[in-house]
Amino acid sequence: MGVSGYLAFGPKTKGNVLNNFPTDDWVVNVARLCFGLNMLTTYPLELYVVRAVVRDLLEIYHRREIPELSTAQHLLITTVLAGVPMLVALFTCNLGAILELVGATSASLLAFILPPLCFLKLTKMKPLREKIPLYMCIAFGLCVMVLSSTQTILSALHSTDDDHCVV
């Protein structure tokens, strides 16, 4: 989808390729509706999975099995997981900046930070000189994550044009 958007609109391609089209085009509005319905139906499934992961994290933190979340815990976790993305969506229309932030954090974590951390946790390496490359990789990943996130946030804050939004 990104390649076809770039081929059609060149360097003026917006983060959400549907924002490149006029608001009065009925075909594009049907596509926007379908995209919205897709998000509406898949988000609860993702929320269910994240809530289960939070329960597992609570089990690890409390060091005991939690068979089921209490009603208050369930409500709190669901409210936070649904409310935070909704607030972000209400205050931004630049999908590109959001995707850059997600990419900056998740790619750095998955490529540079978590693998050496897991290796350190799973192996019992004694000499510090054997651990130095692992710590360097973690530090590099943290630097990449912080720099790219900062760059994205600063460019979003200092952006004066609203060309990424549907007008």
From TrEMBL:
Record key words, sorted: Amino-acid transport, Membrane, Transmembrane, Transmembrane helix, Transport
Keyword 4Fe-4S: no
A Pfam family per the record: Aa_trans
Record-linked InterPro entries: AA_transpt_TM (IPR013057)
Domain of life: Eukaryota
Membrane spanning residue stretches: 30-54, 75-92, 98-120, 132-154
Keyword Transmembrane helix on entry: yes
Membrane-related topology note: Multi-pass membrane protein
Compartments, as annotated in UniProt: Membrane
Coiled coil start-end: none
Amino acid transporter transmembrane domain boundaries: 1-153
Protein family according to the UniProt entry: Belongs to the amino acid/polyamine transporter 2 family.
Name the record gives this protein: Amino acid transporter transmembrane domain-containing protein
Organism from which the protein derives: Pichia angusta (Yeast)
Upper lineage: Eukaryota, Fungi, Dikarya, Ascomycota, Saccharomycotina
